[in-house]
Design goal:
Structural class: alpha/beta
Number of domains: 3
Largest sheet: 6 strands, parallel
Number of helices: 12
Keywords: DNA-binding, Transcription, Transcription regulation
Radius of gyration: 24 Å
CATH architecture of the largest domain: 3-Layer(aba) Sandwich
CATH topology of the largest domain: Rossmann fold
Helix content: 40-55%
CATH superfamily of the largest domain: Response regulator
CATH class of the largest domain: Alpha Beta
Number of strands: 12
Order of helices and strands: HHHEHEHEHEEHEHEHEHEHEHEE
Strand content: 15-25%
Protein name: LacI family DNA-binding transcriptional regulator
Shape: elongated
GO molecular function, one term: transcription cis-regulatory region binding
C-alpha cells in the first residue's frame, strides 16, 4: 500500500476480500459477520491504523465512556467524580454505562457504543475479553482499565493502587498495637486487588513472626452485608480475633454492626481497619481507621490517559499504581491486657 493512499473502508474491504458493507458491520460491532471474517477485517483495520473519525475531520466527540460492572456503592461515586473532573478540565463530558455483570462488556454494549461517537473508554473493575479489546482497537478507540479484575493482558493500559502495600500497612498497624489474633475479610477471589491485599496481610504477619491462621481469613464481596456476615462468623470462633482488617470501608461498617449486635465495642473490644477512605469513613462512629485508596485520582488519570491516547499520544507505561496511605482514626486501639 502506498504511504500516501488514504485508509478507507473500501481499501480494507479490497484487502480482506469482502464487501464494503461487511467492513462497515465489523466497524460498527454488528453481529452478523462470521468470526473468521471479523478477525481478518479487524486485523487489517489495526494494521493500517484505520481512523473512524476521518470522515468528521478528526474532530473530538467531547465524550468519554465510563463503564462499570456495578454502581451500587459510594466507591463507584468516587470514580465518577474523578473521571468527570478530568473530563471537564479537557472540555469533555462523561457517559456512564452499567453492565450489571462482572463478565465485562459484551456484544450489546459494543453495538450501543458503535451507534455514537466517543473519544475513548474507561472500564472499571471488570473483565475485558480479547474480543472486546480487538473490536475497540479495530475502531481506533483508546481504552484504559481501572482496578482490573485480573492481570491485564499485555498491551492493555491500566490504573490501580498499591493494594499489597495497603494490606501490609493496615496489618502492620494492628500488629504494632499489640494484636495477635488479626483477621482479614477480603473481596472476591478472582479480583486482583483482593489477592494483593491478602498477600500484604500475610507479609505483615510473617514479618512479625506471627502465624497466618486459615480460619481468620474470610472472602466475600466488598459490600456491607459481607462485612456483617463474615464479621459474625469470625467473632463466633472459639478464639475470636481482637482485630479485623476489612477489604473495604463498606465491609468495615458491616463489621461495626456485627460487633454491636454481639455487645462488643469498637475499638475497646475490637479494632477495625477498612480500605478505601470513602467520605463516610470520617463521619462513621467511631471514625474509621482505613487505607486511603486514591479513587478520584485513579479515575482522573485514566480519563486523561484515554483522551491523550485519542490525540495520538502513547502512555509512558502500561501499568500505573498510585500510592495508598494508612489513615489512623479512632476505630483502632492497643490490645487490652
Amino acid at each position: 500500500m502506498s504511504a500516501k493512499r488514504r485508509v478507507t473502508i473500501a481499501l480494507i474491504a479490497e484487502e480482506a476480500g469482502v464487501s464494503i458493507p461487511t467492513v462497515s458491520k465489523v466497524i460498527n460491532g454488528r453481529p452478523e459477520v462470521a468470526p473468521a471474517t471479523r478477525s481478518r477485517v479487524e486485523r487489517l483495520l489495526q494494521q493500517h491504523g484505520y481512523q473512524r473519525r476521518a470522515s468528521t475531520g478528526d474532530t473530538p466527540a467531547g465524550l468519554v465512556d465510563l463503564v462499570f460492572a456495578e454502581i451500587e456503592s459510594p466507591w463507584a461515586m468516587e470514580i465518577v467524580r474523578g473521571a468527570e473532573s478530568a473530563a471537564h478540565e479537557a472540555g469533555a463530558s462523561v457517559v456512564i454505562s452499567v453492565l450489571h455483570t462482572h463478565a465485562g462488556p459484551g456484544r450489546d454494549w459494543m453495538e450501543r457504543l458503535a451507534g455514537r461517537r466517543t473519544d475513548g473508554v474507561v472500564i472499571v473493575a471488570s473483565r475485558l475479553s480479547a474480543g472486546v479489546q480487538d473490536q475497540l482497537r479495530a475502531r481506533s478507540l483508546p481504552f484504559v482499565v481501572v482496578d482490573p479484575e485480573g492481570e491485564p493482558a499485555p498491551g492493555v493500559v491500566s490504573v490501580g493502587a498499591t493494594n499489597w502495600n495497603g494490606g501490609l500497612a493496615a496489618t502492620r498497624h494492628l500488629v504494632e498495637l499489640g494484636h495477635r489474633r488479626i483477621a482479614m475479610i477480603s473481596g472476591p477471589a478472582d479480583m486482583l486487588c483482593s489477592q494483593a491485599r491478602i498477600d500484604g496481610y500475610r507479609a505483615a504477619l510473617e514479618t512479625a513472626s506471627m502465624p497466618v491462621a486459615p480460619e481468620l481469613i474470610r472472602r466475600g464481596t466488598f459490600l456491607v452485608d459481607s462485612g456483617h456476615d463474615n464479621g459474625h462468623a469470625l467473632l463466633s470462633l472459639d478464639d475470636p480475633p481482637t482485630a479485623i482488617f476489612a477489604g473495604s470501608d463498606l465491609q468495615a461498617f458491616g463489621v461495626f454492626e456485627a460487633a454491636r449486635q454481639r455487645g462488643l465495642r469498637v475499638p475497646e473490644d475490637l479494632s477495625v481497619v477498612g480500605f478505601d477512605d470513602l467520605p463516610l469513613a470520617r463521619s462513621a462512629w467511631p471514625p474509621l481507621t482505613t487505607v486511603r485508596q486514591p479513587l478520584q485520582e485513579m479515575a482522573a488519570l485514566a480519563t486523561r490517559t484515554v483522551l491523550a491516547m485519542g490525540r495520538g499520544e502513547q502512555p509512558e507505561t502500561r501499568r500505573v499504581e498510585l500510592a495508598t496511605e494508612l489513615v489512623v482514626r479512632e476505630s483502632t486501639a492497643p490490645l487490652r491486657p
